Amino acid sequence: MRIVGCEILHCNAGWRDFSFLKLMTDENITGISEYNECYGSPGLSGIIRRLVERVKDMDPLAHEHIHQCLYAATRQAPGGVNQQAIAAIENALLDIKGQALNIPVYDILGGAIRKEIPVYWSHCGTYIWRPEIAELCEVEAIRKAEDLIKLGKRVKDQGFLGLKTNMITFNEDVGASLYMPGTAGRPGWPDLNLPSSLIGQLRDQLIAMQEGAGPDVGVRLDLNFNFKPEGYRQVTTELDDLDLTWIEIDLYDPIALAAIRERIATPIASCESLYGLREFRPFFEHAAVDVAIIDIPWNGAWLGLKIAGMAEAYEVNCAPHNFYGHLSSLMSAHFCTAIPNFRVMEIDIDDVPWKDDILTWSPSFKNGCLQAPTGPGWGAQLNEEIIAEHPPKFVVE
Q1: 0.90 cut: is pTM over it?
Q2: What is the second-level CATH architecture of the domain 108-375?
Q3: Pairing verdict, β 17-25 and 31-35
Q4: Which of 5, 208, 238, 274 is the most exposed, fewest CB within 10 Å of its CB?
Q5: CB–CB of 78/276 below 8 Å?
Q6: According to CATH, what is the number of the domain 3-102?
């Protein structure tokens, strides 16, 4: 079997686009993967195409050989969009191999350790404070603080045992908004200093969501890249009494993150923006995290397995970074099914209604758990008719 080429597909998903790779072989087995060009990776599709050209005529079943070849070819600019392109190819290769061997990808990763995967409702309220997005998602928009109680109750009523939210604030002039200066999305960038009123608003937000969700639903807060270590220390110290499941922090300095973790009792989750063994290693060596978050579309499921193996040596459990489409959820589910040191799986629930039709698989939940997928490879195919009905709005090639 030989690689003969690829095709790129994009599908609009309301406030973002989903992107997919189809990797073709000379034996009519096509592997698919999902990648993310929409958030911070412009030009990624072009890099994928160029790297596929480098591995044409290679054996797709030799995915480690191909990964190492592509890593060597991009060694002078490691990580970033180069690694995301390698991961998209690697994930499609795993799908090809699973189909060729008539086994699911998790069997390639070592076999299923679990068939039910605990999940948490991610970006809970993060998108739907904007009325136009709430309308797209066919849910009620968040307009006032009391709506957070109802949102927490909706999570509980739908059987989820955990949620994660971002920093939602309220103002008499603008109503609800998202505090997100770290990506230059609002005032507060680039200094990223902590506003004096924000901690009180965060406490109110989290207490309201806990009230609605009840004691059996774990609540997480994602602080992203929105502060410097000084601000993270202040926020985490002031919220440490709320019994949160974890606080998520994005920092590229493992020593600074370890110092924050030492100050509080609330667990710290991080690493979702890291690539490869070399970037994860210092976070484990400095005991900077309680939960290591691994992005499977960015790293690849095979490399993700290696990262999880390294984390296990430091007694750290792993969770996938998964806020994309259903193919990403499917890829992440295979990863979660196979690794021993698994914590919980992230998944977005509030989304556009056609998300369920893009792929021939959609998540099935029972008792707060995603049911493990079946079938060879990833176990699904893209619905290209639905994709064509929703052309991209943000990804420009």
Answers
A1: yes
A2: Alpha-Beta Barrel (3.20)
A3: antiparallel
A4: 5
A5: yes
A6: 3.30.390.10
